[in-house]
Write a structure and sequence with these properties.
- The chain is elongated.
- The protein has helices at residues 2-12, 39-45, 70-75, 107-111, 193-213, and strands at residues 15-17, 20-24, 48-50, 53-57, 65-68, 83-85, 89-93, 98-104, 115-123.
- The strands form two sheets. A five-stranded mixed beta sheet has the order 3-9-8-5-6. It has a four-stranded mixed beta sheet with strand order 1-2-4-7, with no helix packed on it.
- By secondary structure, it is an alpha+beta fold.
Length: 214
């Protein structure tokens, strides 16, 4: 309910002129310390567009309106404003989109929140569509000619395969069998003299043992 009342009061404090609207700062147009607490809430609810105007009412010999940069807005610097108004009944036209920073010309007033940021959205009077008209359809491209095939190779271009290697011929003459040796095998060795002596001793002791047994 409070939101509806706030929007209704905002509607009453704006005046339409053609496509532009005239706003009163804070809703009442009062630019002073007494009304400074309402500036932020008022600016957040408003929909400001290019061509709209904002009215500031104040005592000309006691206050002023400065349009400044964002840095000067945060620091309440009044040294180099973009624009300065001190006539007591200032009507400022919002001529470009983006944020617009306004502060009081009295530094102490600015530090006590007598300042406001107004965000401008777009041009309300721009009703024409920016969509470009479609260009005439281009004629379809002609089909590309079929690629030319290379000529078929002739018989001379094909190299004959190399002949297969021939198998080796078998040797029909077998190798001769080894000849039998005509030499006689070596004679078996005869017993040496030492071997015959051992045999004689063995026979002697055998005979001698047999004699004692008898």
């Amino acid at each position: 309910m409070l939101t509806l009342l706030g929007l209704f009061s905002l509607f009453l404090t704006t005046t339409q002129t053609g496509y532009a609207y005239q706003f009163k700062v804070g809703g009442s147009g009062d630019w002073s310390l007494a009304a400074s607490s309402s500036y932020d809430q008022w600016a957040q609810k408003g929909r400001f567009q290019i061509g709209d105007t904002v009215l500031f009412n104040y005592q000309a010999n006691e206050d002023s309106v400065l349009q400044v940069t964002e840095a000067d807005y945060k620091n309440c610097s009044t040294a180099s404003p973009i624009a300065k108004y001190s006539d007591g009944h200032t009507m400022i036209t919002l001529n470009q989109s983006g944020p617009h920073y306004f502060i009081s010309g009295v530094v102490d007033h600015c530090k006590n929140h007598e300042k406001v940021v107004i965000i401008v959205l777009a041009d309300r009077s721009n009703h024409t569509s920016d969509t470009p008209s479609p260009s005439p359809s281009a004629s379809p491209p002609l089909p590309a000619s079929p690629p030319t095939l290379p000529p078929a190779p002739t018989s001379e271009q094909f190299a004959s395969p190399p002949p297969a290697p021939s198998a080796p011929e078998p040797d029909l003459n077998p190798a001769p069998a080894p000849a039998h040796s005509d030499e006689n095998p070596p004679p078996s060795p005869t017993p040496s003299g030492a071997s015959s002596t051992v045999m004689d001793l063995f026979c002697f002791f055998g005979a001698f043992g047999g004699f004692f047994l008898l």
